[in-house]
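1st attempt posting a full record on here, be nice pls
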Amino acid sequence: MKFEDLDAFVHVAQQQGFSRAASRMRVAQSALSRRVTRLEHQLGVQLFSRHGRGVQLTEHGTALLERAAGLMAELKSIRSDLLAHAAEPRGEVSIALTPTTAQVLVPRLVLELRRHFPQIKLMVREGFSGFIHGWVAEGGIDLAVLYNPEPNAELEIVPLLNEPLYLVAPRARGALPELPLRNGHVPVRALGTLPLILPSHAHSLRSLLERLAAERRFALDVVNEIDGMRAIKGMVEAGLGYTVFSYAGVYEEVNAGTLEIIPLAPRLGWELALVERKLQAQTRALTEVRRMILQQIHVLRERGFWRGELRVVTGA
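the predicted structure (as tokens):
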């Protein structure tokens, strides 16, 4: 019996389908199916019954899962313990970040790891905060850097930075409604009268703005819903609407003169945070990657990429 076959079986059983398990393990679905089939042939029993919505454990599959899940957890624990005591940090660490954060933070992390800890392999996933929160809660990610994470008793949430949000406007307004400026600021309630281009509710920014509008009893005028920051910025540059974002997400366009940011009144902000599961195994590799993330947050804040108040203190 091969370890990889048993591991494949456990993942398919837990995810209740080959497609979801393949995505979680980052392997081809066909390879996963071959592993499970090989295990069934070796044991001489059928472990799953297949149906249109996924798979269901057979009686034999249920019996095997009861034994295999504990065995796999113990094997992973042994591996983590050995890696934790290695002379040099080594092993795989998976992180997830929002697109804006990943663009600047990941290259710096990889550079520092190659320089100081070449035996650490960094696995990176990119997505909106809503998706990332689910990945880390399900155990698919070791560390996550995201905005406004939802409180969860099983997660450790470390605030990193409280970052102001701005109305983002094109330099050439064209036919867009005139901004109701007051002392250089746009009133928050004006978000109900301006044509907005925003991401869907999977993005923490959209949820934040919807809650704000509900609290102040107005409705957002969302003329286009787009899940892609590059596309949103391109539409705003073309004069098709306004959006709301932090300086970090638009600093290139602001410096190039195609977009400008206008403060909101009262101040509106969101919080960048480091998130991980409380009960996950702590390896030296994980400890070093966490330390480097905190360190680089400070470096990028000092270099002006992020604006706002630092919420975490760390040494060099």
